[in-house]
Specification:
The chain is α/β, with parallel strands linked by helices and 302 residues long. The protein has 2 domains: 71 residues; 195 residues, 3-Layer(aba) Sandwich (Rossmann fold), CATH 3.40.50.450. Helix content is 47%, strand content 13%. Strands 1-2-6-5-4-3-7-8-9 form a 9-stranded mixed beta sheet, with helices on both faces.
Length: 302
């Protein structure tokens, strides 16, 4: 049976927690809709909060999932889920891991052994935009995938810095890949795809971006990466969410030492590397290498 995870997520009142229980409980992949219902019945015996869908609900969900995949392929959007051995290993070990990914472009950009998130304010200073560009440009030349969120400001300059170095960049979106946000970066999104980069989302086509989606998106940015460079941030910003996810996921958090309240707050933490610019490249590489070795130990048996 194909598209199992997407089918599960398409069943009414079945969310990520239920799907997580389902994945952990099942001993082998369901072959048909009846198998799915049977597994839910067994789950219900172990956890009374689990909702058991009807066979008709599962059949409709499967039809919906297959239609999403069909329409996605028409737009060159591919899907991969947590049951696939090629699913990004680093994302499998984060809290609240994504169960399915939709991507457009070069999948190898997602699973590069060396990857680095570079993020920052949408209304960054010209100096910070330059810092985002230069860091991305340098690490792209060192064959790192540069991960960011396609937002205006620092994200845009990180993507452009990578592209100008002919590197691979990954833009993680907070909506379906048929809807590029912000609209000002549609051309940049096309350039990313045309340049061996990748657009990524955990949301299917037709899914609009909501406020909470940006926070959910942030955990994927950091989860794909060995570390995150915070270029410029205010205390109340999405950048801070990504920074916090980075620390929770035990990845390297690197922060520019500039007089911005978000940067100052992050630099008060003992496990954040303070940098001023390209002169600190060696220190950054050391931190990223430590994380890489640690992640290899954690994911060796996955």
């Amino acid at each position: 049976m194909e598209n199992i995870i997407l089918t599960l997520l398409s069943i009414p009142k079945v969310g990520r927690k239920s799907v997580d229980y389902f994945i952990r409980y099942m001993k082998e992949k369901p072959k048909n809709e009846n198998d799915i219902v049977d597994i839910f019945v067994s789950l219900k015996n172990a956890n009374k909060k689990i909702k058991v869908p009807t066979l008709e609900e599962v059949k409709l969900a499967r039809e919906k999932a297959n239609e999403i995949v069909r329409l996605s392929k028409e737009q060159n959007i591919e899907t991969i889920d947590i049951l696939d051995n090629k699913f990004p290993t680093r994302l499998k070990i984060i809290e609240n891991y994504p169960q399915i990914l939709f991507y457009k472009g070069n999948y190898n950009a997602l699973i590069n052994d060396y990857s680095l998130a570079i993020i920052g304010s949408r209304e960054a200073s010209s100096n910070s935009e330059n810092n985002a560009y230069e860091m991305a440009n340098y690490f792209a030349k060192e064959t790192y995938s540069i991960v960011s969120g396609l937002a205006l400001g620092c994200d845009t300059y990180a993507h452009k810095g990578c592209l100008d170095a002919k590197g691979m960049t990954v833009a993680v979106l907070s909506s379906g890949l048929d809807s590029i946000y912000p609209a000002q970066n549609r051309e940049l999104a096309e350039r990313i795809i045309e340049s061996d980069g990748c657009l990524l989302s955990e949301y299917p086509i037709g899914f609009a971006s909501f406020k909470n989606n940006f926070i959910e998106r942030d955990r994927i940015e950091s989860g794909l990466s060995l570390g995150t460079i915070v270029v410029e941030a205010t205390v109340k910003s999405g950048t801070m969410h990504t920074a916090n996810f980075t620390l929770q996921q035990e990845r390297a958090l690197i922060c520019f030492n500039i007089p911005k309240d978000g940067n100052k707050l992050l630099l008060e933490k003992n496990n954040v590397l303070s940098i001023n610019g390209k002169d600190d490249i060696f220190k950054i590489k050391q931190e990223l290498e430590k994380v890489k070795n640690n992640l290899e130990n954690k994911t060796r048996d996955i």
